[in-house]
Prior knowledge:
Layout (H helix, E strand, L loop, with lengths): L5 E6 L24 E5 L1 H12 L6 E5 L9 H4 L7 H13 L13 E5 L9 H13 L3 E5 L8 E3 L4 E2 L10 E3 L4 H10 L13 E6 L14 E6 L1 H4 L6 E6 L10
Bound molecules: 2-acetamido-2-deoxy-beta-D-glucopyranose (NAG) (2 copies).
Amino acid sequence: MKLTWICTLVVLFQVSSVTLGAEKLQSYNVDRSTITVSGFSSGGGMAMQYHVAFSSEIQGAAIFDGAPFACYKVDFCKNPGKVVVSNLAKEITGLASTKKIDNESNLNGSKVFVFHGTKDTVVDPAFGHKLEKLYQVFGAVTKNEYTIKAVHGFPTNFYGAACGSFSPATHFINNCKYHGSNIAMKHLLGDSLASPASSAEGQLLQYDQTEFGGSAVSSMDPTGYVYIPTGCQDKTRQCKLHIAFHGCLQSKYGS
Ligand SMILES: *[C@@H]1O[C@H](CO)[C@@H](O)[C@H](O)[C@H]1NC(C)=O
Ligand SMILES: *[C@@H]1O[C@H](CO)[C@@H](O)[C@H](O)[C@H]1NC(C)=O
């Protein structure tokens, strides 16, 4: 049986001086040729930033209810319906030509999944459409889902508030009868991805993120989380790494 093991590294962005004394991240046997990222909301924006900036190292991205690269320039994105994709593309090629980010030609053939609910009133669905078009300028292989009547929330098929119900209480996770994470990962990694297990069998560990820059100043939490599937605990087996960026109000402090 061919199984694709996914290690999930959840990086928390959060201003805080609290440290829980987590241990250093161990080294794992990671297949560097298939590192992928994802994120929801501001985490989705971060996932695209990270993928485009480090395109030589990152092979794919899944963006849920996110915003395009370069929306840090407010003028580009103040009117979601009028985002000019060619301006964003020029920002990318300009940064790459001065080597501030990786060469955009790495994005050619990269896998990208984009989800945006029709009832999202927090991040305009136009942003999802535009960021997909921006990726297509550079030859990314995209797949999208824009038809579900979802509010601003991460879609699952087993947990969360009703799909049309905005829900801080479930950390913006909604049961839309749509297995967002699995569908996205299938696009990023291919059909060799094993079906989800009925219950999580791995270990969710905290690790000290300060050696990677986690501090109050960097706005990245000193503690990160890493999920190690059972099959990846044996370090002779090579595993794929997936990095998930959370959105605003989704950190362990709820901020
Ligand atoms: C980016 O990569 C392409 C293809 O390898 C190459 O032609 C181009 O010169 C590179 N650009 C920079 C700024 O290095
Ligand atoms: C992507 O690469 C293919 C060749 O592998 C090339 O034909 C195509 O023009 C490239 N697309 C972009 C957007 O650079």
